[in-house]
Amino acid sequence: MRLQTGHVWVYRSDVLSADAIAPGSLVAVTDQRGKPLGTALYSSTSQIAIRLISPDPVGDFSALLRERIANAVAYRQSLVRDTDAYRVIFSEADFLPGLIVDRYNDVLSLQILTQGMDANPVRETVISTLAEHLHPASMVERTDTRVRDLESLPARSSALLYGEKSATTFTMKGVRFQFDALEGQKTGAFLDQRENYAAAASYAKGEALDVFCYQGGFALHIAPHCSQVTGVDSSRPALEVADHNAALNGREIEWIEANAFDLLKDYSSAKRQYDTIVLDPPAFAKTKRDLDAALRGYKELNLRALKMLRPGGILVTCSCSYHVSQGSFLEMLGASSLDAHKSLRLIEVRGQAKDHPVLLNIPETAYLKCAIATVS
Ligand code: SAH
User: Fold this and answer.
1) CB of residue 355 inside a 6 A radius of ligand 1
2) Does residue 200 line the site of ligand 1, with CB under 6 A?
3) Does 234 share its domain with 328?
4) Is 160 helix (H, G, I), strand (E, B) or coil?
5) CA–CA gap between residue 365 and residue 102 (Å, rounded)
6) pLDDT tens digit string along 140-183?
7) Disulfide: which of 156, 285, 306, 358 matches 294 by Cβ 3.0-4.6 Å?
8) Residues 141, 268 share a domain
9) Residue 9 structural domain
10) Residue 196 CA to ligand 1 centre (angstroms)
11) Which residues of 281-300 are buried (b: 16+ CB within 10 A; e: fewer)?
12) What does pTM read for this prediction?
């Protein structure tokens, strides 16, 4: 069973009995013979019925939460550099299943994903402990209707929990971004790519294309090293923020609102050439069933990008689909290079930034792939 392999989830179909347990409560978990397996948070509706929070009995849950939060903060203090924006708490990877907290300079953005974390004494302890450690000017809770539905949590819209501001600017490696916790997708920015922005910047050169640029994370980081940068995204609101970010940093970047598949097809047929191309599409494989279609999508993008790269050019290519393993991603990339008649040298294979920890026994915590390669 999964708990014995170090995982923390138990699916509802594997639960033998859970009689009269209140949604979101703390439960003692035993195996079928009654042997204790630890303490978990129980969800009455999610497919993941049980998320283990400790292999031992838990007496004082508030104290445990405070200790976990303090440890998560200390972990970032020891590993995160050159930024005032990073993920403070990453759910299971910080032994706080169902809780995600991001810091953007003086604004904290919280996401509560489970009944256990939404239960009232828990919420209050989380909020007060975060305030104690990080002293933000404000805290915003970002809610996702789909997630709240899955957990049968009462509908609530994103809102300030305390403080007055939801907007701020944050700085990663000297690059400034605007942020509004009550706008945007995900929790605002893609903090998991932060270290990959810096890696991309160390190889980028010449004429560059940032495809799926969102608010300009890669484009703005590589701009100082390139003669010209174009960012492409289908979302106009994202590009408006990207343009504002460019102005904040005194950069001239061309933003194009387009479907990336169409644009890459047109540009590669027109034999456009670039020295650097970044591909950072949304997750194509949301479930295991989407895997083949997802790989075809990645292949089409990568094939077209490779065709447009000049000799010595740099490809930065990403996938944030957990269901696409690093192995199959690299295999797809190899097949794309064969079809594009280009040979590809892998410079780096990277993952998510260190503030998004990966627990080896919880494979779902590792989802981001970022390969940097050069064509010849
Ligand atoms: N590289 C960005 C994150 C990209 S997220 C960063 O580091 O911040 C994926 C982006 O793809 C989103 O901004 C979304 O608007 C965009 N997108 C999704 N489908 C698209 C499509 N078919 N064509 C162009 N952009 C698309």
Assistant:
1) no
2) no
3) yes
4) strand
5) 16
6) 999 888 888 888 888 888 999 999 999 999 999 999 999 998 87
7) 285
8) no
9) 2-54
10) 16
11) beebbeeeebbeebbebbbb
12) 0.96
